Each structure stands twice: as structure tokens, then as C-alpha cells.
Amino acid sequence: MIEKLKQFLNFHAQELPPEEKAKHLNVAAACLLLEVIYADESFSAEEANLLPELLSKALKLNSNEVEQLISDAKRKQKKSTSLYEFTSEINEQCSIEQKQQLILAMWRLAYADGHLCQYEDHLIRRMAELLYLKHSELIQMRNLALKTL
């Protein structure tokens, strides 16, 4: 039993190829953005249009790659049990600035339909905590998102 646990841990501790790491990171980020979209239990047309645009710009992907990424993220999100599996991936691979840009994208999605739902607000604040961002950084990103409306 202990030997199997050691094998499992060693298997998961092995380094993934860079392209695989990038794919895992992109899926994790897309999953978090989807969480924000679904927080208010509605998927508005504004959110549906903004998500691919945000992913395309941030990750420099074409429309087919963005569609595949969103599809992968939806599948992964349905199987997930917590935000931690996504935020831990981001914490491992991203800088503070990249995390701030992700939070900015979350705020933009939350405000895309014209109002901020309390569930969206709570979720973004929780994700900022899990990403080890300061409250001042969270507010700064929210204010930037409001300026772009």
C-alpha cells in the first residue's frame, strides 16, 4: 500500500513538458473565468462574447483554439470539487502581474452584463485570496475593469 502511494506521488511529481504545462495553465485560467460567469446562474450574451475575446488576447490563441480551450475547461470544471485545483496551478506558474491580469479579466466578466452580482463579487474576492493577492490589488483591478466599461 505504501509503495503504491510512493509510486503515485513520484508519478505526479515528474516534470511535464512545457507545452503540457502551458495547456494545464490555460485550462485552469479558463475554468476560473467560467466560475465567474456561472456565479450568478446566468450566461449572458455579453459574457459569452467577452470570454473568447479575453482568452484570445491574453493567450494569443486563434478562434478554434479558444473554442477548444473553453470546451476543455467546461469538462474539467464539471469534474472539479474545488477552486484550489485551478488556483494552485496558477500559483505554481504565474507571476503576480499575471495573477492580477486574471483577476482583472474576472472583474470584466462580472461587469459584462451591466451589474455585479453578490455571488460574483464574493467568488472573485475568494479567488484573489487563493491567488495570494493583496486586497489593494483586488480593488485596483476592479477599478481598472470599471474604467473599461
From TrEMBL:
Domain Co-chaperone DjlA N-terminal: 27-143
CDD domains per UniProt: terB_like_2
Top-level taxon in the UniProt lineage: Bacteria
Listed Pfam families: TerB (PF05099)
Protein name as catalogued: TerB family tellurite resistance protein
Organism (species): Shewanella surugensis
